[in-house]
Design goal:
- By secondary structure, the protein is α/β, with parallel strands linked by helices.
- 30% of the residues lie in helices and 22% in strands.
- The chain has 9 helices and 17 strands.
- It has helices spanning 13-16, 18-38, 58-75, 98-102, 137-146, 269-279, 288-291, 304-313, 319-337, and strands at residues 3-6, 42-45, 78-82, 109-112, 116-121, 124-129, 151-154, 162-164, 167-168, 183-186, 193-195, 198-200, 217-221, 228-231, 237-242, 257-262, 282-287.
- A 6-stranded mixed sheet has the order 4-3-2-1-13-14, with helices on one face. Strands 5-6-7-10-12-11 form a 6-stranded mixed sheet, with no helix packed on it.
- The chain is globular.
- It starts with a strand and ends with a helix.
């Protein structure tokens, strides 16, 4: 039996932005079409089905009920959905969580907020591990220790892997506790990358400028270590370098979120910008000239990230709060520095 494997979807992203909703719906339509063509009726979702931790909106709930449920039900597909950190209301508790409260009422979803083993047949099995937090960490570590499964799918925050293509996580769990598995697949980090026996599967679509110009998609799991990648034909976040790409075919950027990186201002820039605005969903202009301006070297120069870390370290807040602040800043800084 084959299974589809889907990374973080973050339904409700950017305050229920309709463009993001349409993009996600197209992803699910692609997945369902592939499943129907190849006779696949079950899949695994690696967590962070929803985006907003504490206030999943009625708009998002309506999107699930009116669009996703009919799509999956008509195709006879059931998704086992792991609970990710964005799905949980509280940082240190696995419940309450949005998948349990919203998705569990539908037969096409099976919510995984407890460690669970799925029999794959042929003497093989896969462990499904939800987000590890203070409430469930001991139970999960004991479950993994006693497990005899070949494979594991989780929503792990592991040190040494890339959240985005330019941002490696310097926090999180050491992956040693997962060494027993033949292969481990994980959601949580949005950039597909691997090391040792762990493979972060990434997201099925681009979601921000951090993902620009990357091919995303979903996977087919056949009970063997290597997955089959099925590419999303659309990249929703794109970058254009001006003037080096001023002759590029702009039609490929239609309905995309575009960053225009300007390194030289000439007479054709305004017209070029206007053409992009006519076809793109949104456009942001990055002034590379201003960004690369020289600085007075008589002063001691520290990196921006170093200055921020120093400032956070001196804040009068708890260590846990400092960790949360540093994590948020790392994500924001990665988006800025990728320009």
């Amino acid at each position: 039996m084959n299974y589809v494997l889907i990374g973080d979807t973050h339904a409700g992203l950017r305050q229920d932005n309709p463009w993001n909703e349409d993009n996600l719906y197209e992803v699910f339509k692609q997945i369902v079409a592939y499943c129907k063509e190849h006779g696949i009726t079950r899949g695994f979702h690696a967590g962070d089905f929803f985006d907003v931790r504490k206030a999943t909106t009625q708009t998002t709930m309506n999107f699930v009920r009116e669009k996703l449920v009919p799509l999956l039900t008509e195709a006879g597909i059931t998704l086992d959905v792991l609970v990710g950190n964005h799905d949980c209301q509280f940082k240190d508790k696995i419940r309450p969580n949005a998948p349990r409260e919203i998705l569990s009422q539908y037969e096409c979803f099976n919510v995984i907020d407890e460690p669970t083993t799925v029999d794959l047949g042929g003497g093989k099995s896969i462990d499904l591990i939800p987000w590890i937090c203070q409430e469930n960490s001991h139970r999960i570590f004991e479950f993994i220790k006693q497990s005899k499964s070949n494979f594991c799918l989780g929503h792990f925050e592991l040190s040494g892997y890339y959240f985005y293509k330019n941002s490696k996580a310097d926090h999180g769990l050491e992956p040693d506790f997962l060494k027993k598995y033949e292969r481990v697949y994980s959601g949580h980090y949005h950039h597909a990358n691997e090391g040792d026996n762990v493979f972060y599967i990434g997201t099925p679509l681009t979601m921000s400028a951090n993902d620009e110009d990357e091919t995303r998609g979903f996977y087919v799991f056949t009970g063997k270590p290597e997955l089959t990648f099925i590419a999303n034909p659309v990249c929703h976040h794109r970058r254009i370098m001006y003037p080096s790409q001023k002759d590029v075919d702009l039609e490929q950027f239609r309905n995309c979120s575009v960053r225009l990186i300007v390194s030289e201002v000439d007479n054709g820039l305004a017209k070029f910008q206007t053409k992009i605005e006519e076809i793109a969903y949104e456009i942001s202009i990055i002034d590379k000239i201003q960004t690369d301006a020289t600085v007075d070297t008589d002063f001691e120069i520290k990196t921006v990230r170093g200055l921020i870390s120093e400032y956070v370290a001196n804040m009068q807040i708890s260590d846990d709060e400092k960790e949360d602040v540093n994590k948020l800043i790392s994500e924001l800084y990665a988006e800025v520095s990728s320009a």
